[in-house]
Amino acid sequence: MPTWLFKTDPDTYSLADLEREGRATWDGVANNTALIHLRKTAPGDEVLIYHSGDDKAILGLARVVKGGYPDPKQKNPKLAVCDIEFVKRLATPVPLAAIKAEKALADFDLVRISRLSVMPVSPAHRAILKRLGVPAVAR
Question: Is the pTM of this model over 0.85?
Fold first, then answer.
């Protein structure tokens, strides 16, 4: 099962918003690389929800329920969205500082390309994040 990390500004849309709504269309992505990743999402994929801003931490888990498709609210067919559902909050958030402290995560896009809002998480990186406290999404 592929894993993705979705970054969000909690002032715009937070994990609490997703938790309250249960399901959401993940939109507002404009970066070409992030859009390529978003288009690759598929139902069942795991999503790590990361808050930027003051939090700077992975706070929760979600699951893709509808993979990448053209944004129906936009005229530009290159803009994509996907639908996700809330799974759970982490017992303890995993802060960016802890992620950066792991030498084996030095090539993780969250560390290397900090502005990227949608990024894949390799199986090797996922294993390290699990050790840091990010449990797997139950199928």
Answer: yes
